[in-house]
Amino acid sequence: MEEVRIWAIADSYAAEPLGPKSQVDTEALLEEILVRNPDLLIPGLRLVGRQTPTKGGPLDLLGVDPDGRLVVFELKRGTLSRDAVAQVIDYASYLDAMEVDELAEYISERSGEHGIDKVDFADWHGQEFEDLESLKPLRLFLVGLGADKTTERMVRFLADNSSMDISLLTFHGFEHDGKTLLARQVEVEGAAEPDRSSTRRYVSVKKKREELERRIEEHGMSELFDAVRDMFKKNWPGSSTHPGARGLGVRLRRSGRWSWYGRIDPVEQGKVGMAFFPRAKALCLDEFRQPVQDVPNQTVPMNRDPLVEDDITQIRFLLTAEEWETHKETLDALTRAVYEAWESTEQDEGLPDSESSPTD
């Protein structure tokens, strides 16, 4: 990495080299400066999260660029090392595994901390951009006060040889006339445009819905799928559905915010999966005990106690048309019980729906 130097030019055209500011002082200032001046990272950037909790630890900064894409920032107040590369990929892969609606709710629930404004992310993003699909593919940024050669080599390799949009950005502090000057240096720049190639294609909500309908018809379960969907619609007034890679997500809205509570998905061998997320279980866990005994089911993740109280395990009842006829009264009563418990609570339980909905 080349050394960054700055000169002050006097009226006599004499060039006076500026001394670097103390590394310790610059480290202490860097994160706060970037939070208050996000344009230093990307012009037009809107920060929507700071120290956002994830499975791998707190994500330093989370933002949305002028194209509506989600940007993950791993910030080191000192010199970036190879560990930072693994960290930013860990954070990004965790967020990327979520459906865009789940991701929007995840961001909303964790905004409003550490100097970042509280935001209803889906509503804000919908006003600024066409739809939530523009969030992906994610952009990754490593930001620090320099980077070692190994880190620069690794990031350059990923930027040049994969579909990953990853950049390396460094800052350098200087002192002049009692002021701190900050120099921005782009070491590795990711793709200027999102790669929506065959490995990561832009898929609209309309296309997702068409693909879901095709799969339902292909497996010969249109009537069964519609029956399960209609049961949710009847028992969860005001609920909304959204197609995704796994099926049709079902969510409820409170105080202007949507939260995921269930999903309906077509399964091979003519079965429909009827899933309840941990947030739904937490409302009335006892009401699930008898259905779990009587109705064929599995858990996601697999091989877990379906009645465990955590923020990960969901119950998915698996039904053929014949099993639906046998158990529909039981499941109808269960969905009513969940809604009644939800309606009687003053606020959501705070369970992270996105964490409770891993990829099948």
Quickly list its features.
14 strands, six-stranded mixed sheet, six-stranded antiparallel sheet, alpha+beta, 26% strand, 360 residues, 10 helices, Trna Endonuclease, Chain: A, domain 1, disordered C terminus, Aspartate Aminotransferase, domain 1, 2 domains
Verbal overview:
The protein has 360 residues and is of the alpha+beta class. It folds into two domains: 7-188, 3-Layer(aba) Sandwich (Trna Endonuclease, Chain: A, domain 1), CATH 3.40.1350.10; 205-344, Aspartate Aminotransferase, domain 1, CATH 3.90.1150. Helices cover 36% and strands 26% of the residues. It contains ten helices and 14 strands. It has helices spanning 23-36, 82-96, 100-110, 121-128, 149-161, 205-218, 222-235, 278-283, 286-294, 321-344; strands at 7-9, 15-17, 46-52, 59-64, 70-76, 139-144, 165-176, 179-188, 240-243, 248-254, 257-267, 271-276, 297-300, 314-319. The strands form three sheets. The protein has a six-stranded mixed sheet with strand order 3-4-5-6-7-8, sandwiched between helices. The protein is elongated, with a radius of gyration of 25 Å.
